[in-house]
Amino acid sequence: MNALTGMGAIYRKEIATYFRSPIAYFVIAVFLLGTGYFFTYNIFLTGIGTMNSTFQNMGILLLTLAPVLTMRLFSAEYNGRTMELLQTLPLRSWQVVLGKYLGALTILLLMTAATTINLVPLYLYGTPQTPNILSGYLGFLLLGMACIAIGQFFSALTENQIVAALITVPVLLGFWFVGHMQSLQSSEMLRDLFAHLSFALHFADFIRGLLRSEGVVFFLVVSACALTLNSCYLQLRR
């Protein structure tokens, strides 16, 4: 079994599992309801004709929903005693990790695509800045990639799905709010470190339309590190 075929089989299994259970429908529904509420509040009640505040709210909402999306990826395999079967197949650990990761990313893409319906009234009645919107969506997808990779790694560490989610939430919130610790540090090096590790500060650049390579690389490196740790851990379990 070649690499793409094996990864594709895992991917198809994950997609089928998501839509056979209420998880995908629940996550997408809650995300769309939350995004719709924030968009309506920001645009119609406050009169702010941009997506900036909505993107910020979408990022925070994602931090709470990503653990729900990822908690079952490996924990369910342990509970269902199917992890042993996966490990006996002619698949490398990284193929299993990437197959599951791409399945979760597909749900993220569906969630993101569905929010574009909010742009219709914005373009009909306002004058939005398209580059800022595209940049915001790119930043949101990169943020989601990092959150899902981290959540998937913690799912691989425990057989309990709830525990996996409960570990993931504070870690993601820690990455989001770590930038606020800058003001508490006297050392410039620590201030720069906390700023560099902050999901919120990097995402804020994208929302403002600032496509910085530093932000893109940061989210991709976080995703790659979490996926690598995930793959190494599965290899150790064999």
What's the overall geometry?
Answer: globular
> Main beta sheet: strand number and arrangement?
none
Portion of residues within helices: over 70%
How many helices in DSSP terms? 12
The number of E-state strands comes to 0
Structural class: mainly alpha
The radius of gyration over CA amounts to 19 Å
Quickly count the domains: 1
Overall pLDDT: 88
Sheet-strand content, in percent, reads under 5%
N- and C-termini, Cα separation: 19 Å
From N to C, what is the helix and strand string? HHHHHHHHHHHH
Low-pLDDT residue intervals, each spanning 5 or more residues = none
What does this structure look like?
The protein is mostly helical and 238 residues long. It has one domain. 81% of the residues lie in helices and 0% in strands. It is built from 12 helices and no strands. It has helices at 3-20, 23-45, 52-70, 72-79, 83-88, 93-114, 119-125, 130-157, 161-177, 188-197, 199-207, 213-237. Helix 3 crosses helix 11 (199-207). The radius of gyration is 19 Å and the shape is globular. 35% of the residues are buried.
